[in-house]
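S1.2 Input.
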Amino acid sequence: MEAAGQPLKNVVASSILDFSWHVVFLQEMLQLLEEGYSIFGISRETGFTRKTVRLWLTRYDAEGHLDVRHGPGRPRATTEEEDASIVARAKETPLTTATSIKH
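S1.3 Output.
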């Protein structure tokens, strides 16, 4: 499966910050599953390991939704808008340090 000429795994890696990649991945997996693909076949088509494919399909079967689980941990220090601004500044000047981007 490809999206805009990129393998799905590359699309996922490039859009990890928007947190919607999992929905695209699961929809592709479910489509392949409906078409009769095995775990191995889905893995081969998407570029993800069989373990990852099995994890997401099992989780979907158990929970019935495509939402990401939010685990324990420290609350966010920045908003999504601030994250987007930080990423934009880092792309403008790739050799800038995190400290100078923050200020």
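S1.4 Remarks. The CA atoms of residues 59 and 69 lie 10 Å apart.
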